[in-house]
Write a structure and sequence with these properties.
The structure holds two protein chains of two kinds. Chain A is an all-alpha fold. Chain A is built from twelve helices and no strands. Chain B is built from 20 helices and 21 strands. The chains are: A mainly alpha, B alpha/beta. At the A-B interface, helix 7 and helix 8 of A face strand 18 and helix 18 of B.
């Protein structure tokens, strides 16, 4: 009884938990509805697409964290050792990467993926998905790097940093354990929630764009099926058109949840997931007063 | 002396902050309340005075809801008749209002003797000087911390004059001074005490003075002994995790201990100097000099021998901490030079010298503010991780070291406790121990007794003495002159002056 009360109290006060619950509950409702009214092959496609989308977004988040941590440490070490040339070179390279719009960068990376698929170097979805995640992570991780560097700069101005240094504590421990892990992990986690949402959005956008095909031999069919590529299928497009049709023929709305489920489910999953991620990130920031 | 006892419980967000069963302030007496920083002295006094927000805290006074206490005629009368001098002068003053207007704000408007009080607090400074201060809007840097503190004391004295000036006092009053001398040097501190006791001489009133400054006892004993029957000394000490108790504090225990450490001074082990600092240097375009005589300002190299304790004195803000940071390579000073363990280090030496050879290996520095010097998100145990010790610290070894400065048995729960959840005094002891645990030849201590209660002060000085006998050398920086004048040989006292 007390656990249930606690849970409800948490839902009332914690916006992030509330929206996480809404997301999971919304997904369950969709699954149940689709089980009842969507044909089996289409249902399996949605499950596969959703799973791939979430798995790749999760991998993107991990890659972002890894790249950002490495870049932050490299930049910090070069700064502390006053190694100007390597520092400027690395900063220039990172700023060059920053100058590329994320969606353009990911599209360019997909060209590389397409060529590797064409050469046969990448064949299975299990191999392509991590590769796609690395590509997306490359164009996102600088946002997290900036956050980590801001946190380090903030703590370097406090006595705490110098107090540990004069005690002989190693720089790498102060930066990685005391500043980033002990004092910034909530900030980093909040950013990673946003990165997850960003990855879902980028992936769906790019997959939708490339649905026209990347080369004569490679197209979206060769890549793991995602919500973006499912949305680009002709069936889904017709379902979305049906949605527009109801604007002029409102009485047709009653048919939508029964006869146009594939496209509507995919569109709903994308929008609903992005909306929930946005609220979860905001709620998390509010709860931890970031 | 009548004294009502209060049981005060304060919590917030479901967590108990402090609980005391026997908090009392004697009527028509001056009560000094000592105790380590963060133990709950201020918050209990604020709760009693009716200053806390019942929406923010869960408070019960004598098991009654806080709202009842706020509406009690006693509390209403106290708030009407009295004054509460807050610990941090900057947060007490309104930055959007001139000081002279704040001196006449609210119930202060009707009181008299303002000019006289200001003149007394400024030691009869010209009226123009006082006017130039009262015409200011308070800013973080002007007036100075000491001047702001004296403004607050002036407000309190105005209210005391108003209260004691009445033919028949209407209702109770409680004048609370929370660290009223924290930003004052000894001269102004003594001046404040004299003004307070003079007014008390004329007519008795109830005052509570919250302080860490045990040397105030010597001043009261030396200059106001005739009022001893009306002066009480209490100390707040911890009895549980968030429970505290008020105990009588014997001034004799402090005075006796002070004379015992004076007698116990040991000669230095002598030999070749460990550290020699050239007396003149420039930092932030300010010429500084170390001298042996504060009046003549004759330059004298600061020399610390093996097993010696050296005390560096200077007025607040001159640059004692800055010199400590220069020695530790955190600041670069022009013309600076020191000979440390047969190695000449000067302003041209790169920071790698300190990083590779000195920090944690040959020298350590205890920073002034434990709150800022410690990682508050780390646990007690993690605070000691990563130190370059010759012998790795085991859990048992760490417990033993902690027991040297902390009371009672050190439990696993304490080791896993977040530093943020420790009291100010506990943080300071942790801050000290983190450096004292190192195997360094030199330790610089910047205000090592900050926020400590008497028992902890004794433990810290005993530990320093033990380390000194083992061969460690210390450079002390502290405003706590009475204690360190007693603790350190007179010949080992240096003065830092700005030229």
């Amino acid at each position: 009884m007390r656990t249930t009360e606690k849970l409800f109290a948490q839902l009332r006060t914690h916006k992030d938990t509330r929206w996480l619950t809404v997301w999971v509950a919304g997904l369950l409702c969709i699954v149940l509805w689709d089980l009842a009214f969507l044909n089996r092959p289409a249902f399996m496609k949605i499950i596969q697409g959703f799973w791939n989308t979430m798995a790749i977004a999760f991998l993107v988040t991990l890659c972002t964290l890894l790249f950002a941590w490495v870049a932050t440490n490299l930049l910090h070490t070069l700064t502390m050792r006053t190694m100007r040339v390597p520092y400027l070179t690395l900063s220039f390279a990172l700023n060059l990467l920053r100058s590329v719009p994320q969606i353009v960068g990911v599209l360019l990376f997909y060209v590389l993926v397409a060529s590797l698929v064409q050469k046969g170097s990448l064949s299975s979805s299990a191999a392509i998905a991590p590769f796609m995640a690395v590509g997306m992570g490359l164009f996102i991780f600088l946002e997290l790097t900036d956050l980590m560097r801001e946190r380090i700069d903030h703590f370097r101005r406090l006595d705490f940093y110098n107090a540990m240094r004069v005690c002989g504590v190693q720089e790498k421990r102060i930066v990685n354990f005391d500043i980033l892990w002990k004092n910034s992990r909530v900030h980093i986690l909040n950013k990673l929630i946003a990165v997850f949402g960003m990855a879902v959005f980028l992936q769906c956008s790019v997959d939708f764009i490339i649905s026209v095909g990347l080369s004569n031999n490679v197209n979206a069919v060769n890549l793991p099926s995602t919500l973006g590529s499912l949305l680009a299928k002709i069936d889904s497009k017709q379902d979305i058109l049906a949605l527009g049709y109801t604007l002029t023929h409102p009485s047709y709305a009653a048919h939508l949840p029964f006869t146009h489920l594939l496209g509507l489910t995919v569109a709903f999953l994308i929008v609903f997931t992005l909306l929930c991620m946005h609220h979860i990130a905001n709620g998390f920031a509010e709860r931890h007063r970031l | 002396m009548n004294a009502s006892s209060y049981a005060v419980r304060i919590g917030a967000q479901g967590r108990q902050l402090v609980s005391v069963d026997n908090f009392s302030v004697a009527a028509n007496a001056i009560t000094f309340l000592f105790g380590e920083s963060g133990i709950g002295k201020s918050i209990i006094a604020k709760a009693l005075y009716g200053l806390l927000n019942p929406a923010e805290f869960d408070i019960a006074i004598n098991n009654q809801p806080y709202r009842d206490h706020l509406n009690d005629p006693w509390t209403r009368a106290v708030r009407h008749n009295s004054f509460f001098v807050f610990q941090e002068p900057s947060s007490h003053l309104n930055p959007l209002m001139k000081i002279k207007d704040q001196l006449r704000e609210g119930s202060l408007v009707s009181t008299e003797h303002e000019q006289l009080i200001l003149e007394q607090l400024w030691e009869k400074a010209p009226a123009e000087t006082i006017r130039s201060i009262t015409n200011l809007f308070p800013k973080p840097y002007r007036p100075s911390g000491g001047e702001k503190q004296r403004i607050l004391l002036a407000m309190a004295f105005k209210k005391i004059s108003a209260y004691t000036g009445k033919d028949a006092a209407t209702g109770p009053a409680l004048f609370v001074f929370d660290e009223p001398t924290g930003s004052l040097d000894n001269t102004y501190r003594n001046l404040f005490l004299t003004m307070l006791f003079n007014r008390f001489h004329e007519k008795k009133f109830t005052a509570l003075i919250i302080t860490h400054d045990y040397s105030i006892i010597s001043e009261v004993y030396g200059s106001h002994r005739d009022l001893s029957p009306h002066v009480l000394y209490h100390e707040l000490s911890r009895t549980g995790d968030a429970t505290v108790a008020v105990n009588d504090f014997s001034p004799q225990s402090y005075l006796g201990w002070l004379s015992s450490i004076t007698g116990a001074k040991q000669d230095a082990t002598g030999g070749k100097p460990l550290l020699t600092i050239k007396p003149d240097f420039t930092i932030f375009n300010k010429k500084m000099r170390v001298c042996g005589d504060p009046v003549a300002k004759t330059p004298a190299p600061l020399i610390i021998g093996k097993g010696e304790t050296v005390y560096l004195k200077a007025q607040s803000g001159v640059g004692k901490t800055t010199l400590a940071k220069i020695v530790m390579g955190l600041y670069k000073a022009q013309n600076f030079s020191m000979d440390f363990m047969d190695r000449i280090i000067d302003h041209t030496s790169p920071q790698e010298v300190w990083q590779q050879e000195i920090w944690g290996k040959k020298a350590g520095l205890v920073f002034q503010h434990a709150d800022e010097a410690l990682n508050l998100q780390a646990t007690v145990q993690e605070t000691f991780a990563g130190l370059p010790l010759r012998t790795p610290l085991t859990m048992q070894g760490l417990k033993q070291r902690l027991e040297e400065l902390f009371e009672g048995e050190i439990t696993d729960a304490f080791l896993s406790k977040k530093v943020a959840f420790l009291s100010g005094g506990q943080k300071q002891r942790l801050n000290l121990l983190r450096t004292l645990i190192l195997d360094t030849s030199l330790i610089i201590l910047d205000e090592p007794l900050n926020g400590l209660d008497f028992a902890s002060i004794k433990k810290v000085l005993a530990l320093l003495e033990k380390k000194r006998r083992q061969g460690a050398s210390f450079l002390m920086i502290s405003h706590n002159e009475e204690i360190f004048d007693a603790f350190v040989e007179k010949t080992k006292v240096y003065y830092l002056t700005a030229l």
